[in-house]
Amino acid sequence: MSTRAFGSRIQRNIDPQLLRGEGSFVDDIPLANALHVAFVRSPFARARINSIDVTAACTHPGVAAVYTCDNIGDLDLELPLLIPHSSMTDARTQRPLARGDVYYVGQTVAMVVAVDRYTAEDAAALVDVDYDPLEVEIDLEKAILDGSPLVHPTHPNNIAAHLVQVSGNPDRAIAEAEHVTRVRVQVDRSTAAAMECRAVAAIFDRVTGELTVWDGTQAPLSVRGGLASILNIDEDKVRVIAPNVGGGFGQKVLLFYPDELLVPFAARHLGRPVKYIEDRRENFVGSTQERTQIHTIELYAKKTGEVLALRDSFLHDTGAFIPYGIAVAQVASTSIAGPYRIPNIWVEFKAVYTPTVPVTPYRGCGRPHACFAIERAMDQLADDLGLDRFEIRRRNLIGDDEFPKLREGLLFADGLPVSLDSGQYHKALEMLHDKLDVANFAAEQQKAREAGRHLGLGMAFYVEGTGLGPYEGGHIKIHPITGKVYVNTGLTSQGQGHDTVFAQIVSDQLGVKVEDVILVEGDTKAFDWGVATFASRAAVVSGNAIHKSALIVRNKTLTAAANMLEASADDIELRDGAAWVKGTDRQVSLAAVATATNPLRYAFNESAKAATQFAPASRHDGPALGEGQAPGLEATDYYSPPCATWAYGVHGAILEVDPEICSVKVRRYVCIHDCGNMINPMIVEGQVMGGIAQGIGGAMYERIEFDTDGNMINANFVDFLVPYATEVPQVEILHLETPSPLNPLGVKGVGEAGCIPVGAVIASGIDDALRPFGAAPFQHIPITPSMIYAAVTGG
Amino acid sequence: MNRGTIRPKPQAISIDPKVAVNLSVNGETVSAEVSVRMLLSDFLRHELGLTGTHVGCEHGVCGACTVIIDGVAARSCLTFAVQAEGTNVRTIESVADDDGSLHPLQEAFRNCHALQCGYCTPGMIMNILSNLESDMPMDLSEEGIRVMLSGNLCRCTGYQNIVAAVRQAADALASR
Asked: What region holds the 2Fe-2S ferredoxin-type domain (chain B) (predicted)?
């Protein structure tokens, strides 16, 4: 028997192409005679537009068109609200090009189309917009005060949404508590900063009436649907392709960015290919961001440390618009109790409009915020009660026999009550304890202190609800010519290695090599049904759909091969690209089986000729295809998860703080991680390590800064500090595999996991290192050298 | 839709002043007229069709656009095409063998899972390659490799596997 592919560290199918520089990212696709787009963007955080004069831009040599809200026809609309929720009233969304008002610096006001980007930018500078700037309030806590300037006059106190969720009976539990710990924590704004900025290119073919759009999006099916409806073209005539995409992390799923509509519109209007390749500055000021939340969290406990109730109230910055609804805040609020038993929960949030780039999910989507709040509070509770940080967690972690742990009353992003399905939380904690050699750390720390060095141990636990529905599909076909297996799903990949992990799933069922499984996704002409890549859902939802389809194709193949080999299907095994009669050398290649199941038997190649040497693949009388029978070895099936499946992990670090130069050096970083059964541990580790690197950025480096007028003052990679190799530590990963009971493959998502606890780990470690200074705990990330300076100098 | 109307006809080219440039790209001689302000990255990608060189920030920080100019790693987004006059430029497309077989450095990247989305990878490879091919000794300590990589941003991998790939490639090349 060949080795099982599922669970193996298998190299990726896609790598050679990418390594040779032969990827096809949007701007790599050659489009003859293409025109290029540059946008005129608002220089004000809030202003009224008196007039827009495009005369000079229109007559600039090389300019094909200049668009404003007045000449884009049906596109002059408020864009859809993706996820409505009763906590929002009159949710505000952006218009493709501003009409009357602008709401953040960077908002698109006009679009110039010209022969090249250089010319388009020249002409964009010639568009003369007359603005009346308005008062703004950027500070989240001041924005909700009476009398603060309003982003939208429709929304008093800038409140976009308000939601309270309750689980258990917090009032009664609070009354019984012997101790309360209260902390205020803050996570600042960041951005996904994928290495490829967003990009859209489009061609309208006047002969066929087909609109083809290449979009570096995570959601081509949704983009297709939107384009068809807004541009009023039959869905069948709109093809959206997400080719190779250089990272997504959530930013590349919004419906819609203005360019995603305007570029196809212009391509149709002008009769020429049009492309918009976002530059880095535009990515900062024009593409969505995430993270700012301010939590006040209270833990009501017994003196033993057992937490009876949790109260959390937080502000969530949603930026100038709320196109994605309350998703980020909702995930934060429902993840707030983390891995702990805490039976009584009261959690409230207010989503607040600020005149800044709109907020949509960025890798983590509310989980890093919630984790930072509960983990910092747990550390504080331990300190307050004189308990060890590991001990306080031992006393509150959900036990293995307590799953599923239902938090009735807390509705997760899928609209269903939170139910943590499985895990070995206590074991994970002890694995970290051992791996970090916590037992000996205090002595090491003391010795270092005597030598004038400040070591600290930080740790944090996290949970992640993954694999959200509603569904995905998988289509599988064994090609009759080559015997290779073609697989399609409605997702896209931005580097996650779908083409390999999905191939591993199929390989095991059909007995073919992983490299002979060809995945085509991200193309609406390849597969028509599905949602998108986000929310750590690909392996769970598409993975299981593909698995189910593979089982159907497997059974069809076994039946056909049994007929051909004149054996019982029970005696057939599939391996090495062929069907074999077990224990014999009698075999027929999958290509031959696929050919034989297609009643049209042209002998294209040797395997097709071989197919004629066997008995028929189907045993029935009458026409070539029996009633209800389909040609070939092919199937499509779908998977719809009953609810989210919860992954988790615990991270710890040993770090050193140099109080002289206020630097932090991470000496060791250990991750204990459980995402259920791993399809490819190499890829899982890659996801985790990449997430941790982003977490390190969020913990110590990455903060989007606005001045009081709402100008983003670090909209570039010089001032916004994405970590290089020199800032990211070596990570030691240990896996646990607690199969998810919710799906056939037993898998849980992993995409967002790594980034979730890092901020809390680093803060916890710096606290520990700086105890001799008597500094207040670090409750605000990113933790900058200035904040450390203030702590060590008592300032 | 403006059915029946004559399509807008923008001027076919920009009015930028042009300048002649002669250079060698991946061993091939190239002579072209380019806009005086055309970036080398745009020239390679859109005039020569060598789209393996990627552009990540256009201000010289991310390193995705790194190519080798006269043996030295350089940012093609901070170089005008005209500045490449008389130089030898090498891009990612020249690294694998003609039959597509991967260079040991590319092979090491694949072995070590040192790439995810692959967008930063060509720039990473060209930077590391310029070091591997240099006469200067390489510091293959953990810290030395990380410093070598510190001109290239990667948002996917967390770098650890890239560090491992550099070490593996250096070993493979040393034993040849």
From this structure: 19-95
